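[Automated response] Your request has been received and processed.

Submitted sequence:
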Amino acid sequence: MSENKSIEIICPACGKDTLLRRTPRYEGFRRAGEDLACSSCGHPFADETEVPFKAKQQSALFDRKELGGRPKVFKPDEAAHLCRHCAHYVVNPFIQRCSLKQKVVEATDSCARFTPPKKAAPDKSSKQPPPHAGQGGPAPLLKD
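Generated structure:
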């Protein structure tokens, strides 16, 4: 398969600004390569080096100096109190809710009752093996 290869050409046979047609060529059941042709007139090309690809034109609307840097949307302290950073923000594939107000919210909403999420403490029980019968843990349930 072609990986983002250019397809815009100016055909030398018909002179049109057109597209390059790539069709797979097989030998038996194995792919042997690609046949290249003009999509307008069908003029065949032997290989990629023979194809007159259309040069990509760069837009000269803005200079690098005019583009500037990354825009700042929020003040540093303002972004910290958004609903998406709140402990009560519940994400669902269909809707986002505030579990405190029981209302639909957006990630960029904010309220006066913002609560930062609690840092998850490392789970100490995952480092120790589970307790077995006779070692202080509950006895396993056995059915007769």
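Summary generated for your ticket: Helices lie at 64-67. Residues 8-50 form one domain.
If you did not submit this request, please reply to this message.
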